[in-house]
Design brief:
The chain is an alpha/beta fold. The protein is built from eleven helices and 17 strands.
Length: 339
């Protein structure tokens, strides 16, 4: 079957691999239809993705169709269209036993720790497939991206009418933005890229947009009548941004790190303590997030379709990918189509 593999940083190749074997008990054989290109894939291509080894088949944002099912009871049927929950947790560690499968101690993520979906077919645990009779494969492929933002907003317990600052208007920041809006909070977006900031204005009606290089503290004070935002999400994975973000929450506020980098975060402890800030990490998402998101997308409350700016067929991906990662590419979200 056709497969795109990242052999080394900057080296994608189209190869032919054997078809997967028949699914075992509790498994499903699926046809990959769409693959969303994530920041993780881009970092891996650039050689800057932590906890990553080469060669690797990328792809964890997947819209798939069920081809066959292994033995055992299933809530699925052949022909079902599904989003894929790409987090392969152990089921037995302390996190899994406590229902926090998103931070399993033995976590393996498709396309990162094990080969992912930039291929024709995959065998997956059927429990990781979330069906929808209504959504397109484009929509299903981007449910996982929405899950990252949805989980972060849920974890922060965002309330209606509070000021919520989202730093970084890439796909993860946009996902958080949509769920901030969905709960009725008042969004502020901090983004240096003018085209991405304009997208937030046009697509989501965001009126409060801040350039992080133009006295952001003063601007936040002006917008919030001096209070500052009570919840701040940093979706950049940039150490400078993440350390500056400690300056933005209000007294008694929450700061949520959705992005990550390999290194240490430092902050001024007296200021942190004086404001009694709550610092949260948000990792991946939970099965219930997928169920909730699919319903919201089906009902038209949340959409990712405006994000998609670039497309390519799987066979053309090795030639397209280097163009997509260029700084001036204009890519917001790229999608790979598997014929």
């Amino acid at each position: 079957m056709q497969t795109v593999v990242l052999n080394n940083p900057g080296q994608l190749a189209l190869i032919d691999r054997p078809q997967p074997t028949s699914p075992g008990p509790g498994e499903a054989l699926v046809k990959v239809m769409r693959v969303g290109v994530c920041g993780t894939d881009i970092h891996a291509f650039r050689g800057k993705q932590p906890f990553f080894s080469y060669p690797r088949v990328l792809g964890h944002e997947l819209g798939v169709e069920v081809l066959s099912l292994g033995a055992g009871q299933h809530s699925l049927a052949v022909g079902d269209r599904c989003a894929v929950e790409p987090y392969l947790n152990c089921g037995t560690c302390i996190a899994c036993r406590n229902g926090k499968t998103n931070c399993c101690t033995q976590m393996r993520v498709l396309g990162v720790h094990v080969d992912g979906g930039m291929c024709s077919q995959l065998v997956l645990p059927s429990s990781k497939l979330h069906r929808s009779p209504k959504l397109s494969f484009d929509q299903l492929a981007l449910v996982e991206t929405l899950g990252i933002g949805a989980h972060a907003v849920h974890r922060a317990q965002v309330r209606a009418d509070e000021w919520a600052l989202i730093i970084g208007a890439g796909p993860i920041g946009l996902a958080a933005l949509q769920f901030v809006i969905a709960v009725g909070a008042r969004p502020i977006v901090m983004e240096p890229n003018a085209s991405r900031a304009d997208f937030c204005r046009r697509a989501f009606g965001v009126t409060h947009l801040i350039d992080p290089n133009n006295d952001p503290v003063t601007r936040l004070q002006q917008i919030t009548d001096g209070d500052m935002p009570t919840v701040v999400f940093d979706a950049t994975g940039n150490p400078g941004s993440m350390m500056k973000s400690f300056s933005f929450p209000a007294h008694g506020g929450r700061l949520v790190f959705i992005g990550l980098f390999v290194g240490d975060v430092t902050f001024h402890d007296p200021d942190f303590h004086r404001r009694e800030l709550t610092l949260l990490a948000s990792r991946n998402s939970l099965p219930d997030d997928f169920t909730r998101i699919i319903k919201l997308v089906e009902d038209g409350v949340v959409s990712t379709l405006p994000w998609i700016t670039h497309r390519a067929a799987l066979v053309d991906l090795p030639g397209k990918f280097s163009q997509w990662v260029a700084p001036d590419s204009g890519v917001l979200k790229a999608v790979v189509e598997v014929p």
